[in-house]
Structures are given as structure tokens and as C-alpha cells.
Amino acid sequence: YLLKQGSGAPLAGELRCRCPRAVSQVIPPRLLARVELVAEGPHCAVPEVIATTKQGQTICLSPSAPWVKLILTRILKRYHCVPLIHCSL
Question: Where is the signal peptide (predicted)?
């Protein structure tokens, strides 16, 4: 699911999910430039995984998809990232 252009981080006081729908189809990691994990919170009841392709498309990924879990685990281990901090591949 592609995010609409200009749909960045929620504005102050704006409490809503950035990803109304997410895809679980495999996207080859070599096509991804950035993966962002946004933990659940007052803005959204579910965690969100937002990927940006090297072509600049922003795609919401299903955090429950096995391939997405694998990518997140590798990123967290490799870059010693903490959820909520942006990590690039």
C-alpha cells in the first residue's frame, strides 16, 4: 500500500495511523532504501512498518509478515537501532 505524497509524520496533536492498510507481499530488500518502524502508541494502536524504495515510493509493510519480521530483526541487530528511531538499510 503506497502512502499518499506528503504523508509524513503526524502533526502535533494529530492522532492517527500513517498506514491504513499494509502489504505482506515480498519486496526484494535490494529495492529498499529505508525502513522505519513506528511502535504503537496514542497515535496508532498497532505498530507500523514504513519502507521507502530507492525510487522514492513509500510503502506500508505488514509487521506480521515473516519476511518483514526478518528484515526488522536484521536491521535492529546490525545497526543497534532502538524502535522509533529511523534506520536505513
Answer: none
Q: What does the alpha-carbon distance between residue 49 and residue 43 come to, in Å, rounded to a whole number?
A: 14
Give domain status of residue 13, yes or no. Answer: no
As a whole number of angstroms, the distance between CA 35 and CA 53 comes to: 9
Parent domain of 48 = 29-88
The mean pLDDT value for 32-39 works out to: 89
d(CA 49, CA 36): 6
Q: What is the CATH number of the domain that holds 38?
A: 2.40.50.40
Residue 33: is its pLDDT beyond 60?
yes
Concatenate the DSSP letters of all residues of 51-84 into one string. Answer: EEETTS-EEEE-TTSHHHHHHHHHHHHHHT--TT
Q: Answer yes or no: is 7 within a domain.
A: no
